[in-house]
Each structure stands twice: as C-alpha cells, then as structure tokens.
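testing teh design pipeline on a random one, pls ignore if ur not involved
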C-alpha cells in the first residue's frame, strides 16, 4: 500500500532523471484515499524523523488534504506527543489506494492500483 512513509523514499529512475529534480513524486488522479488506524509507536517516529525529507512530506500531505504538520521539522522540546501523533497519522494512516504518482521532472506516470504502485520502467526508460 502506498503510505506517505514509503512515498517519502520514492523517486523517479527514468533515463535522464536525477535527484533532486525527480523527487518527490507528485500524486495525481487520486480516486481512492483511505485512512486506516495504525498502532502508535512514539519511539519509532522519533527515530524516523531525521530520515524524512520534511518539506516533501509536508507538501505531499497538503496535496492530499492534511495540513496538520508544521512547515519546519520540530526540534528538541518541540517534538512532543501531539506532534508525533500528527506525524503518525500522516505517515502511517493515510493510504492511497487508486491514482498515480508522476515525476516532477519527466512526468513519467507510476499508476497505483489496489494500493500497489507500479514502479516498473520499460527497457527504453531505464536510466543508465
């Protein structure tokens, strides 16, 4: 299933696409988005925070209708349970079931069907 925790790690690998222009993939044509409860694990979220591309996460969450995260990644004492619960919701509970992700550079389309993204490229699209 496409959750934002996974999406925050994905980029386009089509020929000619390079980081940072190929990240983050942009959601389009999302026809089915579900919110499913998941167990809250504060320790996991605290360890995950430094690994996140925060700006990309915030912008993607906004694109999907969630504006709960602050623009800047909280640091130190600002990382309280309230922030962690908002982060948990965005990362772990929002599921994109149907739609597509597009590369912001080459506009390659990665369809999402039944929660599974098709990240395969045709042979002529593979970067070298």
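output:
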């Amino acid at each position: 299933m496409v959750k934002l925790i996974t999406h925050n790690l994905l980029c386009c690998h089509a020929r000619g696409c390079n980081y940072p222009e190929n990240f983050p993939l942009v959601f389009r044509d999302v026809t089915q988005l579900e919110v499913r409860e998941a167990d809250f694990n504060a320790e996991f979220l605290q360890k995950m925070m430094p690994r996140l591309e925060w700006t990309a996460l915030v912008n993607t969450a906004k694109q999907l209708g969630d504006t709960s995260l602050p623009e800047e990644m909280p640091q130190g004492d600002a990382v309280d349970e309230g922030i962690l619960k908002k982060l948990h919701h965005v990362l772990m509970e929002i599921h994109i079931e149907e739609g597509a992700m597009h590369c912001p550079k080459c506009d390659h389309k990665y369809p999402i069907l039944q929660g599974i993204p098709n990240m395969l490229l045709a042979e002529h699209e593979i970067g070298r």
